[in-house]
Specification:
Blueprint lengths: L1 H16 L5 E9 L8 H12 L4 E6 L7 H13 L1 E6 L16 E4 L17 H11 L4 E4 L2 H11 L6 E3 L3 H7 L1 H14 L7 E5 L17 H7 L4 E5 L3 H4 L14 E3 L6 H7 L2 E4 L5 H4 L6 E4 L3 H7 L7 H4 L4 E2 L2 H8 L6 H11 L7 H9 L3
Parallel strand pairs: 1-2, 1-3, 3-4, 4-5, 5-6, 7-8, 7-10, 8-9, 10-11, 11-12
Helix pairs in contact: 1-3, 7-10
């Protein structure tokens, strides 16, 4: 009820500010999932700063909200209502009650480059689904990676296929830029010099709705550190909603053997330094496959996730590009094996990417800004 009242209030101010002239040189970014320079929104913003420095860029991030009412309800509503282009990395529910200017472009980039588990209207129900449908009607351009993703994302967002564009996503440009990624690795090692000569294993579990207030690690860290070699380090990357309630005290006993990097600004850098990825149902695999390194799928609650979670778009075990294990004992065994992962990763990459040419941003700017 409080959230809905907030949506109405934002929309009321938005409607008031619609009376002001639309500025085609103003761009508004909704970065409520990933406001780092490595997210789709952050990469687009930086490219605009370089190419069109005269443009005015405005941002709405996770830090905005009812705790900062003047900023959120007044300033952000004014900026959004008067911007010629709006880029988004998430659903923004107040848009269910707004009417954007007919000349404004609303571009949904999303925060991932694909999804194993069902998203958006493929999983939302009741009032949430109704609000999402109404909010997503404002989308004029939905950007996806491949023809394979086009129907999936169009359905998940309730957007017609003719408004869904296969251009590739900005994050792929960053990952494929070897020089830029090496610079980012160096920045990471400057912060964590003790990891430079280590083998880094990144554990990045997906978001589970029932663990926000009570985050749990499915890994027995004591057992993990007993099994690990001296040159191996486990990096933890938790979903932002979970990380906010995770206690660092849990890690105190493990020193530099286990490091929480959930707050590190930019998951792409973490993927670049990871020698191996352990995940479950996270869309992070769509980026990590570009590094051509092994992945292990620790799906400890697979049956429960199927029955009570979001379920999957594909046959999970046959689709993911790596071995699937459901307990830590098997995880350790697989972790020690080389495995035949290269061909699986290469096949997966070919399936999910239409373009791997570092020109996703160029195609986007040609479509939206004609530059």
């Amino acid at each position: 009820m409080i959230k809905k009242a907030g949506y109405y209030l934002f929309a009321a101010f938005f409607a008031l500010f619609r009376l002001f002239p639309l500025r085609e040189d103003k761009v508004f970014f909704v970065a409520t999932h990933d406001d780092s320079p490595e997210g789709n929104v952050g990469i687009v913003a930086e490219a605009l700063r370089r190419r069109r420095p005269e443009m005015k860029l405005c941002f709405l991030t996770r830090r905005d909200g009812i705790r900062h009412p003047i900023t959120f309800f007044v300033i952000r509503a004014y900026q959004m209502a008067t911007s010629g282009t709006i880029f988004m990395d998430n659903e923004f529910m107040p848009m269910a009650y707004t009417r954007v200017h007919p000349k404004a472009k609303v571009v949904q980039l999303w925060h991932g480059t694909g999804s194993i588990k069902r998203i958006g209207l493929d999983v939302e129900t009741g009032q949430v689904a109704e609000l999402a449908k109404r909010a997503n009607r404002r989308i004029t351009h939905l950007i996806v990676n491949s023809e394979r993703m086009k129907k999936q994302y169009a359905r998940a967002f309730g957007v017609p296929e003719e408004k869904t564009y296969v251009l590739g996503l900005p994050r792929t440009d960053l990952i494929l830029d070897g020089e830029c990624m090496e610079q980012k690795r160096e920045i990471f090692y400057a912060k964590y010099p003790q990891l430079r000569a280590k083998k880094c294993v990144l554990y990045a579990p997906t978001f589970r709705d029932d663990e926000v207030d009570d985050p749990r690690l499915a890994l027995d860290l004591a057992e993990w550190t007993r099994q690990a070699d001296q040159d191996e380090v486990l990096l933890l990357r938790l979903h932002p909603h979970v990380a906010a309630n995770f206690s660092e005290d849990v890690l105190a006993a493990y020193g530099d053997s286990v490091i929480n990097v959930s707050a590190y600004p930019g998951v792409t850098t973490l993927l670049a330094v990871a020698d191996c990825l352990i995940t479950d149902y996270s869309s992070i695999i769509y980026e990590y496959c570009l590094f051509d390194r092994p992945m292990i799928f620790y799906a400890y609650d697979l049956q429960k996730f199927r029955e009570n979670g979001r379920d999957f778009y594909e046959d999970y075990e046959n689709y993911v590009p790596g071995p699937v294990v459901q307990n830590q004992s098997d995880l350790v065994k697989i972790w020690r094996q080389e495995g035949e992962w290269k061909e699986k990763v290469a096949d997966f990459r070919r399936e999910v990417y239409e373009f791997l040419d570092k020109n996703a941003v160029n195609r986007l700017f040609e479509l939206i800004f004609h530059i």
